[in-house]
Design a protein that fits this description.
By secondary structure, this protein is α/β, with parallel strands linked by helices. It is 54% helix and 16% strand. Strand 12 (464-468), helix 15 and strand 13 (494-498) form a beta-alpha-beta unit.
Length: 553
């Protein structure tokens, strides 16, 4: 990883300090830990000549860390709180990661979710997050503990439930004029189809009837001629039935000569009977032929009506009827929408009342908590030689036309409730409190963050805190106070700190020295855990620079 070929570190449970010359590679250690905790990867992180890097971190969380236990269960990762928790990540030059938690393969985001519950990393620029009012709300709420966080979660759930109801209501209400136009069109279409009283097989039957009515004269002529040829005949030719009878008579006489003609005679007799029956059927059909131009006109008019509906609503009568059912369903849905809107109005009123009460309770608890936080911060700042600094948690609640009614005012509400919260600071007596962003120097922000972290370390469940050169802009007595404060935090949490200040390094319970050397033409970063004598030499170097003297020792 980077300039590290291979490295194995075991940290102390308390305050761990990393020191070394600028550029020695101290931050590389923190970068590596950040990567195994699900941080971002870049190809430059892999050591030159290597194809991949592998990082493993072994944690021993408290067995009663309920938040971690619940998260592992939610993620479906096998975990015994009595056993170490091992996070591992291998990354190749292509950027492809292999992440594991207790040998179980996971994705990077899962690794990050678990890592966030194990380690809290702060770099020299991270204190800028204090300027964010969103971050300030989070700090206050976490300081309030489970009771306040539960109230906040209840408000968040109610808020998003109300937002979903309002979105549904607005979707149902969108453009009443468009809805009216749509209903008018649908009603017209349904009325036109219903009034036609279509039957599924009607068109085919009408087409057959129209064909018969249109060809009535030709049908009559064909039947008359056929009946004449089969049954009546004329002076020039006998009818077909008479000719068949003649053929039967002649052949029947010959059966005495050759009985093989009997089947033929039987066939002819059957044909003669069928011809006579056919003649009667033709005559009956002819007698019932309807010469009815008016009925033909009616049938053609009905077919034209059907064709008109087919052009508009479907290729066949079944498709038209199916389209009508869809129209009917849509019209009914508008009626159902009106009912649903009425229901939603009641639900919105109910949820709004509940949300207002929850947000009001959250605000009251926050104000109570803010007073406690202000007192705690004042004590911490005094320890950090900022005793004249006043720290105030400012509350603002904005009114809005679409807000929720609370204590006689319509207040704007969000997923975090009614409150706009901002941390204000007055560094010197007589100055009006102003937002952190406008008055605090880098050193003051660093100490402010440390003060907050020293307080939050006593209430949150994250077991390891890392400070990467947050002592920038801090010196003298303030540096001594920062070191003492880190030592105090290390009574509750494991602390790992990179520093250039001997005042802070002197507080270490476990002191590591990092240096960069060249071996066989390659740059190597190495790390050494210092004993008491070595610590004295390192602190003397930090105090005196390149030349270590008896005085600095």
């Amino acid at each position: 990883f980077a300039l590290i070929e291979s490295l194995h570190l075991v940290w102390d449970n308390g305050l761990n300090i990393l020191t070394g010359e600028t550029g020695a590679g101290k931050s590389i250690i923190i970068d590596a830990l950040g990567l195994v905790l699900g941080g971002r990867f870049s190809a430059e992180m892999i050591r030159t000549g290597a194809e991949a890097c592998y990082i493993e971190a072994v944690f021993e969380p408290d067995a009663d860390n309920h938040q971690l236990n619940e998260e592992m269960s939610r993620l479906g990762i096998a975990y015994d709180p009595a056993e170490p928790l091992i996070l591992a990540r291998e990354v190749g030059r292509s950027g492809k990661s292999r992440c594991r938690v207790n040998s179980q393969t996971v994705n990077v985001s899962t690794l990050a979710e678990i890592g966030a519950l194990l380690v809290d990393i702060h770099g020299q620029h991270d204190h800028q997050s204090l300027i964010s009012t969103d971050k300030q709300v989070d700090i206050l709420d976490h300081f309030g503990g489970e009771e306040l966080l539960s109230l906040r979660e209840a408000v968040s759930q109610q808020y998003y439930k109300l937002a979903a109801l309002r979105a549904e209501y607005n979707a149902l209400r969108t453009d009443e004029q468009e809805k009216a136009r749509r209903l008018e069109l649908l009603s017209f279409q349904l009325s036109e189809i219903d009034e036609a009283r279509l039957q599924p097989e009607e068109e085919e039957e009408l087409q057959k009837e129209a064909s018969v009515l249109a060809g009535a004269e030709k049908l009559f002529e064909a039947c008359a001629e056929s009946y004449f040829l089969i049954y009546e005949g004329d002076d020039h030719a006998a009818p077909a039935t008479a000719q068949l009878e003649e053929a039967i008579s002649r052949l029947d006489q010959m059966t005495a000569v050759d009985d093989r003609l009997k089947p033929v005679v039987d066939m002819l007799r059957e044909s003669a009977a069928q011809a006579e029956e056919a003649a009667r059927e033709i005559k009956a059909y002819q007698d019932h032929i309807d010469f009815n131009p008016e009925r033909l006109e009616e049938v053609q008019a009905r077919l034209n009506e059907i064709h008109k509906l087919k052009r508009k609503y479907g290729a066949s009568i079944p498709e038209i009827l199916e389209f009508a059912e869809k129209i009917r369903d849509e019209i009914n849905s508008y009626a159902a929408n009106d009912e649903r809107r009425a229901e939603i109005e009641v639900e919105i009123q109910q949820i709004s009342t509940e949300l207002a009460a929850a947000a009001g309770a959250l605000s009251a608890k926050r104000r109570q908590t803010a007073t406690m936080l202000e007192d705690s911060i004042a004590k911490e700042l005094a320890d950090l030689h900022m005793q004249k600094t006043r720290f105030i948690v400012s509350f603002e609640q904005r009114t809005a036309e679409d807000g929720l009614l609370w204590n006689g005012s319509k207040l704007a509400v969000g997923p975090r409730g009614f409150d706009d919260i901002e941390f204000l600071v007055s560094p010197n007596p007589g100055e009006e409190p102003k937002p952190l962003a406008k008055i605090a120097s880098g050193g003051e922000l660093s100490r402010m963050m440390l003060a907050l972290k020293s307080i939050l370390a006593q209430v949150d469940a994250i077991a390891t805190m890392i400070f990467d050169e947050i002592d920038a802009g801090v010196g003298g007595r303030a540096a001594q106070a920062v070191g003492e404060k880190m030592l105090l935090i290390s009574q509750f949490r494991q602390v790992i700190c990179i520093t250039h200040l001997p005042q802070i390094a002197s507080m270490a319970q476990c002191h590591f020295h990092i240096e960069k050397t060249i071996r066989d033409g390659r740059t190597i970063v190495s790390i050494q855990k210092l004993n008491f004598k070595e610590r004295v030499e390192e602190l003397a170097r930090m105090l005196g620079g390149a030349e270590v003297t008896e005085l600095t020792r």
